[in-house]
## 1
Amino acid sequence: MGMAAFEVCVYNLTKTFPVTPASEDLSFTKAVAEAVKRTLRPPERKTVVDGISLSVERGEFFGIIGSNGAGKTTFLKMLACLLYPDAGGGFVHGYDLLRQRTDVRRSVVVARAGGWLGTLSQLTGRENLLFRAKMCGLSRRQARERADYVLARLGIEHKANEYSWNWSAGEQQKFSLAMTFVARTPIVILDEPTSHLDPHAARTIREFIKEELNERNGQTVIMSTHYLEEADILCDRVAILHEGRLLACDAPFALRRKYASEPILEMRVSGYTPEIGRRVQERCGLAELLEQFEDVTTGQARLRPRWPDSVNDPNTVQRVLEAEGVPVTSVRWVEPSMEDVYFNLTREKLR
Amino acid sequence: MSTEKPVNRWAAAGPLSRMRELDVVWMFVKRSLLMQTRFKFAYSMGLAQTASSLVIYGIIASLGRSIPGIGHLPGGYITWVISGLVLNLLLNTAIAGPHEALIDSYWSSRLEMILSSPLRLPVFVTGMSAGRYVDALISIAIYLVGGTIFLGFAWPSAPGILAFLAVLIPAMVACTGLGLAAASSMYTLDARDGEDPIRFAVTTVSGLVAGVYFPLQVLPGWVQWAALLIPHTYALDGIRRALYGERAIPLLPVHHYLPLAPLVADALILLIYALIAIPLGWRLFRYGLDLARTDGRLSRWL
């Protein structure tokens, strides 16, 4: 056992995957030649996780954010030894990621994104949970108690004796998560646990993870999410991944202070469309015009214009918007959020 | 970190005790039964299909009385074919078990979940295979009960049954080894969709040439030699010798070259087969999973 202060400590973790090139419209002969070539020649490889080094403290709630394809899932799988790294290594719960894989697997429980994953449709919700709990080493009594407790806390006990084809997508996801929550491990790895959930269900899940798993049980939670506000509220620290690289890793307030310290101009408008947005961006010479719709049918939206230099000119933007028939209902300076941190960081990389 | 956190109450799960592992295997069996019987009509049709195959064997038995090689089999054709079917079911279950355990979990997106649990790999494979054995045992019960009541299946003596087990056990172990190798092909040969090549080859060859439906000796010489590559041939020969007497069963080509009683030779060959197949199959099975964990094919989605 080593690295006792950290629950997870990885260095230079790297993973590449073979890339299968898309087939063009080939004649039969060319298709055969292409198939032979693919078979004989080693495929090109794409780096999905590129030299990530980070550590997670015991009992910490650690978030991972990044766009689709940023390498979040691949990174999490490597922590659970479901995927072996091409380079690098580390320790999970004191066990060597490369040499003590069985012990690592016994230290973590993983929940994947996607509501229906993991449950068997021919079994009821309770049967699924009991089966999972026993697989994780709980006795019959412990399994029953734990399953009942998790079902009640997630608000799905009324669906426990039904088959999965009677569940809504959100309920399926809750059952899928419940399968993870019945396990008793020091580390919980959650891959986008609240995706596909309605706001109420998402809040239930968040509360359970934070209050029950992290604060009450003291389990270390490592969670990837697309919801930046969720990461901001829940996580002690957040890592931002982009194209397989770790761009930043710190507490949310520290990230905001470091990467988005200036207040941001926000305009509320109505009658807005993305097409109008493109024209406004062009006419005002904006580097970016971030839009967040509140009501697509009426075109109510919040806009955040960004200029290429530090010279802000909100009046011109307001004038052009109004000339496009988009009344501006309010203009205000807002404190930057994790979203701003994320966009600032990834924009720099895109440049 | 901003807040005080409690000490983690849950240590990493250690290996499950042997009792817990048995309990998990039992859970797999119950789960398999629950899953199969959930769709009652389809399940009943499957049982009816098994029962109806007895009728076909009954017809062959009555038509084949005058055919040389079939009409004068020890115990009669029905006894011959039912003992062959029982054995073939058990051996094919041993071969299919590991592959079906893997491929079912893969396509139901549960493989990652199972492989990240404290469950040992042999327990997972045994548990998943145990469910299939229950299914096979139900079919065997139909064959034996139906065969005894309606078609005059001749039950062997108690020593015959003991000799039967002495051949059956190494044969099943050998086939499990082949099954593990077959399961690894899911990743080593990327046979994730459809039949795996090893299992297909063995089960097809065993059905045709091992002597399930007709004696091996009625086949051309080269086919008889090809049949010697699979454990089914020795198992079927040994079991029929065990059940119905040495003298009544024709010799396999290999028996002419071994200075042993044919039944002992069969059991010995199966034992050697098992001793080679199990470690080799297990290594291949582990290698297949490691390969999948290296190139990201363990689950359907990265």
## 2
Amino acid sequence: MPLLEIKNLVTAFHTPAGRVPAVDGVSLSINRGTTLGLVGESGCGKSVTALSILRLVSAPGVIESGEILLENGGSTQNLVTLGERELCRVRGGRIGMIFQEPMTSLNPVFTLGDQIAEAVHLHEKVSRAEARLRSLEMLKLVRMADPEQRLHEYPHQLSGGMRQRVMIAMALVCRPDLVIADEPTTALDVTIQAQILDLLSAVRKRLSTAILLITHDLGVVAETCDEVAVMYAGKIVERAPTAELFSRPLHPYTIGLIAARPTPGASRSVPLRTIPGMVPLPNNFPSGCRFHPRCAYAQFPRCQTEPAELREVTPGHFVRCHFAGELDVPQNH
Amino acid sequence: MLTLFVITWIVYGLTRNMPGTPLTVTLGETDPSRKLNPADIERMKKAYGLDKPWYEAYCIWLGNVVQGDLGRSISRKQPVATLIGERIGPTLALSGAALLLTWTLAIPLGLYASARSGSPDERAVGLLLFVLYSFPTFVAALFLQIIFAVWLRGTAWELPLFGMSGDGVGTGWWHRVADIARHAILPITVQTYGGLAWYSRFIHSTMEEVVRQDYIRTARAKGAGEYRVLFHHAFRNTLIPLVTLLGLSLPGLLSGSVIVEQIFTWPGMGRLFFESIRERDYPTIMGLTLLFSVLTLAGQLLADLLYCMVDPRVSVDS
């Protein structure tokens, strides 16, 4: 049984201009202790998917349909229909979350120690001293310098990278089974990015936590994930184990993404390859296969009229393309 | 210090250049048959220092103030310091009670509005507060006077029409305090209701701003319940702008409300200020101006100090 299974999730925003389905029928599953990467361009719905799992999508966004099943001692609980009180137990208790903006994600008026300890108090009946000890332990685990002193400091006294370490400590202090990391390194310097990613994988090994890593950076995915799901225009277009996806991408979009990565040592005179066109906006998705206006392999009229279904082309490798496996694609490995 | 100097200098210049002097006011009120002859008027002008140009008089006033002398009231024939001393108690009691009441009601109201934002009951309360806010104090005061002092006369609900104390109360201090409290109910109500809408609206809108911040989402993701998110995480952050407001309301504590004190003939600073302007009583006007200016500056200092307490990003040395 997977730890978390998302089935046909639809999250839409009801704006004055009409219904905007940011997530449109996403299905995913994560096993215990594994890392799943969710990749896509800005605006494809990956962050909304992440927020939907903990029902943190704020108005006017609503989860319209679908199930989010969390394994719970042999049975499962559906987070979409869970009561407020139970939901609070899952948030931070069984599923921790790390956000993109470390600069603004910590409350400026409380000390770091209070903020981490609060997470402990919310989920476990422990004494203040014990909660403090646990916070200290977590700060050591995320390799903060002078952890004792940090407990009494405020967020503004820390750099972005250090704040993100505190966020990680806070998300992990209750030993959740799953951590959702929504672009945890996007706002950080490249060197800090590497440190934070290292830290995440080290902590995962230590605590055997599963991670849902949301990113637009394929390099990050290649280094840290066991499995990858590629998202485009509110839907998953391809899902496969990491090695398989990079060596044998089957969806034209994934092929384009991998080809668009800069390769070290490549001649500078050769321009980077790009995918033509723009990410479609959720209020105006194209008909048929949503990628067809930008697809080099699109065949008309089928791709324009008939929506593609996600199908398993080889065991464990799912693709949403009418011609998956039949395309004559130059392989880059 | 420089601020105080500039304020008093400007106010002195303006009051001295208002048409009329303390003497014209007194002369206008006296019996024409007992009119003073021009030589006497000149003598009186000299006695009060009104013969000198205003900038020279200002320097004399400033010199006395530096030595701790606020001067004597022209119309009331009493030292200004004594006058202020008499009036400060009643005003402090009235506006202190009103301010305390406003804040203790406005904070729960604002939080309640944030917790139930958009619900029908929140809208109803919001509308009621807005109606109250836009209702002028003098109209409300007159209505309350009619209801409680006229219509309810003779019932247990009757409240005194004006003044601070009545005749024929018992001798014990407890009776006196109870009597003053009874007199204060209407003025306090009038002074509170308008500010209530304003403050609770301010708290509500600040809270709306704060709950959109990323750290509120973090608190929710940690598993904090809706009430903890609002009252613990969000409210601590709304305290920061509230402190500014508190600092700004400090001078109001002593300056009192001219309108409310006038309607209820409450012997406070607001009325003293109003009357001293009407009587062109320069020393009293200046004494009060100086006091209010000092309080405004003190309020700002207090706000700055409170900032350090509620916002860890601000520290005393920076």
